[in-house]
């Protein structure tokens, strides 16, 4: 064998030996790390067992659980949450009906792939807005007394309800912000909005500067579904963002040149829309805490808006126009009431392409993108004039709706002879809202009655259900997605002015409990 070949063979053997040694070292190191991990895990488990056996308290157990959770991988967490979700679905199905069994013998067994897939698909469609839960026909006015929550010194101007219907937020003309627990009625006060500091030497002042008086007035609010963020707006022309967990002020967006009159989160996202008296609608990203875009169109001040899951929104303004915006397409659909019709004061989506509006003449109408006029209008449902039913309903239906309103007005101490001093403003429908993912809606004015409605996914028909007593201006209203209650923000004055006053009303929130019949 040649010398070079023998040298190469020896070098190869040395390299293999070195590699085997390195592999052995690596294997030994991995084994030691595995043993250390196992010892550490066993130590955690042993500490948890000893704490439980000796009853040392919850601190050691909580620390052990926190350490175990920290070691949980992303995939393990997903599996754990999925199992917990399926278990919750099984419990809910068993609670709904424990005696009923289907013909195939599966009953409420959610382990069946067909039943489980159907349930998951239904919940996904409800969350996306493609399907509405039919609860309006099962809602009944409860015999339980309504509750009045006090805390705001002046008129409540905005109310926002979380998706789980457990927490509500409210703002007022006195600048106060409260968080309310629906079950316990406990209130928690947010700190006051920081004052806007304007430095004339740095180019401050001008149209974006807050007014010299009344800058503390709050006019609207909105809460995000899953980002623990809460937004408020008012006369200082700023959109203020708060952290709901720590109740601290996060940031303030400047850009509007008029008071903020409406706020709304795009469902399931961190995109926030705001409208203002400066006739514009602005888009903000709370994921990046940045300004995105401005939408122009209204010729007078914009009064209110509503959003949905898609990048669509509807706004109403003092120019008597209702505008349906398609944000990605940069287009808008302009709709106006008929000649002699009242200006729209409020709006709310019932489906992707259908929405409700409340007008100054007491009319509640439903619109869609296929028509330039309202698809259906109930005239004078708020106020003191005779109710006029739309086509497809009889005079008996109109009479029943009027009797329901009059009964609620009597309960609240309001009538055509004693209107509380509000005059023609009694018919201004200043608030409408649709329960998220449901066919149940409500509208409010200053006539002493909150009207309950049934809608449909296609937008028609719009059916009046009943009325709830409410003394004062209904400046904001929220309908629970479960149909269990209606929460109204009340005031002695209207939301956007002081041209009317009902001295017999009280400033605060009114919760009307409702009963839901079983299917």
From TrEMBL:
SMART domains: WD40. Residues 22-40, 94-105 have a biased composition (Acidic residues). GO terms for molecular function: U3 snoRNA binding. WD repeats lie at residues 149-190, 226-252, 253-294, 356-377. This is G-protein beta WD-40 repeat. Residues 1-74, 92-111 are annotated as: Disordered. Coiled coil: none annotated. One of its GO terms (cellular component) is small-subunit processome. Residues 41-52 have a biased composition (Basic and acidic residues). It comes from the Eukaryota. It comes from Ostreococcus tauri. It is found in: Nucleus. Keywords: Nucleus, Repeat, WD repeat.
């Amino acid at each position: 064998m040649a010398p070079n070949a023998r040298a190469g063979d020896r070098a190869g053997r040395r390299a293999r030996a070195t590699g085997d040694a390195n592999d052995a070292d690596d294997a030994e190191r991995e084994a030691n790390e595995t043993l250390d991990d196992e010892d550490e895990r066993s130590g955690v488990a042993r500490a948890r067992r000893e704490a439980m056996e000796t009853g040392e308290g919850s601190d050691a157990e909580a620390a052990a659980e926190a350490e175990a959770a920290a070691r949980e991988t992303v995939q393990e967490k997903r599996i754990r949450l999925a199992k917990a979700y399926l278990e919750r679905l099984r419990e809910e199905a068993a609670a709904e009906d424990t005696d009923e069994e289907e013909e195939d013998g599966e009953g409420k067994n959610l382990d069946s792939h067909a039943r489980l897939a159907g349930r998951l698909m239904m919940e996904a469609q409800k969350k996306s807005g493609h399907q509405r839960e039919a609860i309006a026909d099962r809602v009944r006015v409860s015999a339980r007394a309504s509750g009045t929550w006090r805390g705001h010194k002046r008129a409540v101007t905005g109310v926002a309800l979380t998706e789980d219907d457990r927490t509500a937020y409210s703002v007022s003309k006195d600048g106060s912000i409260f968080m309310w627990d629906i079950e316990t009625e406990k209130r928690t006060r947010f700190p006051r909005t920081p004052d806007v500091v304007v430095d004339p030497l740095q180019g401050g002042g001008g149209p974006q500067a807050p007014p010299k008086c009344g800058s503390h007035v709050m006019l609207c609010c909105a809460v995000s579904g899953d980002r623990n963020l809460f937004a408020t707006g008012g006369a200082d022309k700023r959109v203020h963002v708060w952290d709901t967990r720590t109740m601290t002020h996060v940031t303030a967006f400047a850009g509007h040149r008029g008071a903020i009159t409406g706020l709304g989160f795009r469902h399931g996202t961190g995109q926030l829309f705001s409208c203002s008296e400066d006739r514009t609608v602005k888009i903000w990203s709370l994921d990046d805490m940045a300004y995105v875009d401005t939408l122009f169109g209204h010729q007078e001040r914009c009064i209110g808006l509503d959003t949905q899951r898609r990048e669509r929104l509807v706004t109403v303004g003092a120019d008597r126009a209702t505008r349906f915006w398609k944000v990605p397409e940069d287009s808008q659909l302009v709709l106006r009431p008929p000649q002699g019709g009242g200006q729209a004061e409020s709006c709310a989506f019932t489906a992707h392409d259908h929405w409700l509006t409340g007008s100054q003449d007491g009319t509640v109408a439903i619109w869609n993108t296929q028509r330039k006029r309202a698809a259906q209008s109930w005239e004078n449902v708020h106020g003191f004039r005779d109710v006029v039913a739309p086509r497809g309903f009889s005079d008996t239906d109109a009479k029943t709706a009027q009797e329901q309103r009059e009964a609620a007005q009597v309960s609240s101490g309001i009538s055509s002879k004693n209107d509380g001093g509000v005059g023609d403003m009694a018919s201004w429908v200043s608030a409408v809202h649709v329960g998220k993912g449901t066919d149940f809606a409500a509208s409010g004015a200053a006539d002493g009655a909150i009207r309950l409605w049934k809608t449909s996914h296609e937008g028609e028909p719009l059916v009046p259900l009943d009325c709830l007593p409410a003394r004062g201006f209904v400046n904001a209203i929220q309908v629970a997605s479960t149909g269990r209650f209606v929460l109204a923000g009340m005031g002695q004055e209207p939301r956007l002015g002081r041209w009317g006053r009902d001295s017999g009303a009280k400033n605060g929130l009114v919760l009307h409990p409702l009963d839901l019949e079983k299917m």
